[in-house]
Predict the 3D structure of the following.
Amino acid sequence: MNNKIFFCINLLVVLFLYSCKKEPLEPKRALKTEESNNSIENGEQIEKILTAFYTSYLEQFSNQNLKESEKKLDSIKVKYCTKSLLDGISNEFENNELDYDPFIKAQDASSDMIETLTVNKIAGSENKFHVQYLDKYSGHKTDILVTVVDENGSFKISSLK
């Protein structure tokens, strides 16, 4: 009888310890893989958004009808940029600290720049992207570091360097 009680107690202890066992590592690896996939998907989505922004921006910036293009440029900036970025740029223009367009780092543009436009996520960063285009006339390559944030469920440009 003592052996049966001893056996039952040992069995209960083993079952208790087994039930307290931590989760296996596989679900955590799967979670990390899922997070990596989301990060990659977000990076690709943001690259597409930035490409759309710069394509439409360069098209309008190179438009010869200034009144029409200014309204469209303002609309594009509001859609793709944070209010704080736009306020900062406006403040720099008002104080004569800026004499070029900070989105393209130039005073003028041509639609030819769109053909050489590239947007790439900076490795190791969740929200920094490298935008580059070539000015075919001068042969000058322009590099812009763009930071993007999630603002109310939509990605917006928050800073330029």
